[in-house]
Design brief:
Layout: E1 27-31, E2 38-44, H1 49-62, E3 66-69, E4 85-88, E5 95-99, E6 104-107, H2 113-120, E7 125-126, H3 138-144, H4 151-154, E8 161-167, E9 173-176, H5 182-188, E10 197-204, E11 206-207, E12 212-220, H6 223-233, E13 239-244, E14 256-263, H7 272-275, H8 278-281, E15 286-287, E16 291-292, H9 296-300, H10 306-323, E17 326-331, H11 332-336, E18 354-357, E19 360-362, H12 363-379, E20 386-391, E21 405-413, H13 419-435, H14 450-457, H15 459-472, H16 481-487
Parallel strand pairs: 2-4, 3-4
Antiparallel strand pairs: 1-2, 5-6, 6-10, 7-11, 8-9, 8-10, 12-14, 12-17, 13-14, 13-20, 15-16, 18-21, 19-21, 20-21
Helix pairs in contact: 12-13
């Protein structure tokens, strides 16, 4: 049990006065989503904008900093603020306005993607960008400017945000849109909660004509096959994602399954009102009709090592090969939220948890770069257990991870024995990604160093962001563990 009096401030920038003691009963241990790091914070769960303003005032009075947390699904330390105040915004979860005629919706930041799609679906709309899990909040998605399996088509979620209200640490709220306070609009989206707190976000939903998607799956023998498939289907697909076997070597390097999906055009679904009903989208609680999904992570646990995941990856690949190319009509929720099929699957990784490393690389260099990264992981005895390939496009947001190229997300199991080895591998991979003109994604990051951030973002961009931060947060109230780790010092 950690006592309040034991907590020393680790924040340099907000130390005009020594920190005062906050109520000990607010102390909670908060973990990174991947479980590989944690810290203790004073956690508050405001329900109104006025309460957020009061908490900013409290932080100022107490000489503490404030970090923001949505669903806490960032893999690393982006939504953590050790030894300081953390606002968990999930109770700010009201739908403020919905217009089923034009698909515009205004929400509080704690509304989850799950609530959002369930709210709009029966009116014939779907969120234009969704993440691989539906438990993320809209505030957290805007804070990281998340992307979906349609990133090259639709860009990140920020491309569909029409306007937002941002509360700054002074308690003042400003309205921002591409035209109004545009510099803050393009920096706060993807600004990982460092400029202020979104208290209201207005988004444009996408019109759909069915609760189903046409989904095609095909196994590819290697990276060449993967990339060729993506490029051949970019123009005619709404979504594409590749799942790769990071254990495969030689000619099979980068082999795996590709899934692509298309919306159904008007009139293609004979029963759209039925397929857009929520019970049609429901993800079953059972696997194969008999096995409760809630225990599957336990069954997965013995396989969460190099041999076990080698076996799983091979099994999945051979099953795909035997089945051949497949086509199904699948509910939206089933296609998008595959990672929600097995509740608590991350627990299978054991007590050390996992981290994800997701570099973004220009299309000209992506294949060679990813081959290099896969090789390196194998050479170091650290093949990653889950590998996901996506296509992206550039965007206008200041701290963007987007570019005209590909990303490859890699999940690494962390143990006491391999922790330092994985960190060293990440440093080596950083150099390879930087040399290829690549970028990184803070939502997934646990290992980035300040010099790497400067290298991919550019000093000018960082200076611009710091300038805006000074304007919105002149007293340096807003911080997180991520901020201190990667950007904390000038
Ligand atoms: C299983 C899984 C699958 C995922 N799939 C994808 C994917 O497909 N694509 C993708 O892009 N990402 C993906 N992610 C990452 C995830 O979508 C992002 O980390 C997202 O930001 C998480 O949302 P959250 O509500 O949990 O936010 P948190 O992780 O709690 O916070 C994210 C950031 O937003 C800030 N923030 C939170 N609320 C506010 C607010 N009201 N105002 C201002 N800033 C705020 C926080 O300070 C933090 O910096 C995935 C994560 C998991 C665990």
């Amino acid at each position: 049990m950690i006592e309040t009096k034991d907590l020393e401030p680790i924040v340099k920038s907000n130390q005009q006065r020594p920190p005062a003691v906050l109520p000990g009963e607010r102390l909670e241990r908060v973990t990174a989503w991947g479980g590989a790091s944690d810290s203790v914070s004073y956690v508050y769960r405001p329900t109104t904008a006025a309460q957020i303003a009061d908490l900013f005032a409290l932080a100022r009075q107490m000489g503490r900093t404030v970090g923001l947390r949505g669903g806490g699904n960032s893999y690393g330390d982006a939504a953590m603020n050790g030894e300081n105040i953390l606002l968990d915004l999930r109770r700010m979860n009201r739908i403020l306005d919905w217009n089923p005629e034009n698909g515009r919706i205004s929400v509080e930041p704690g509304v989850t993607l799950s609530r959002l799609w369930q709210y709009v679906l029966e009116d014939g709309w779907w969120p234009p960008v969704v993440t691989g899990t539906m438990v993320t909040t809209i505030g957290g998605c805007a804070g990281m400017n998340v992307h979906g399996k349609n990133a090259w088509q639709q860009g990140p979620i920020g491309a569909h945000i029409l306007e937002f209200d941002l509360m700054m640490p002074s308690g003042e709220t400003i309205a921002c849109g591409p035209e109004e306070n545009g510099d803050i609009f393009f920096a706060a989206i993807g600004g990982f909660g460092m400029l202020g707190c979104f208290t209201r976000i207005t988004l444009q939903m996408k019109r759909i004509y069915s609760g189903l998607l046409d989904v095609y799956t095909e196994t590819q023998p290697n990276l060449d096959g993967m990339f060729a498939y993506f490029e051949a289907h970019l123009e005619t697909s709404d979504y594409i994602v590749g799942w790769m076997d990071a254990f495969a070597k030689g000619k099979g390097l980068g082999r795996g399954d590709v899934h692509r999906a298309n919306y159904l055009p008007p009139d293609a679904d004979p029963h759209p009102a039925q397929t857009m009903r929520l019970d049609h989208q429901h993800l079953s609680d059972m696997m194969f009709g008999v096995l409760p999904k809630s225990i599957i992570w336990l069954l997965m646990r013995p396989f969460m090592n190099n041999w076990g995941t080698w076996l799983i990856n091979n099994g999945k690949l051979w099953a795909g090969k035997l089945a051949g190319p497949t086509y199904v009509r699948q509910p939206h929720a089933a296609f998008h939220f595959l990672l929600d099929y097995v509740p608590n699957w991350k627990r299978a990784y054991g007590p050390g948890g996992l981290i994800q490393y997701q570099p973004f690389v220009p299309k000209e260099a992506a294949k060679e770069t990813f081959a290099h990264l896969l090789h390196l992981g194998q050479e170091r005895g650290l093949p990653n257990y889950l590998t996901v390939l996506k296509r992206h496009r550039p965007d206008a947001f200041l701290m963007t991870h987007g570019l005209d190229g590909y990303s490859m997300a890699m999940d690494f199991r962390i143990t006491n024995r391999n922790r330092e080895k994985v960190a060293q591998l990440a440093r080596e991979m950083d150099e390879i990604v930087l040399a290829a003109g690549g970028r990184f994604y803070l939502a997934k990051d646990s290992t980035l160093r300040p010099e790497t951030a400067v290298a991919y973002l550019g000093q000018e961009t960082l200076d611009q962001f710091r300038l805006l931060k000074r304007r919105c947060d002149p007293d340096h109230i807003m911080e997180t563990n991520l901020w201190r780790r990667v950007f904390g010092s000038d």
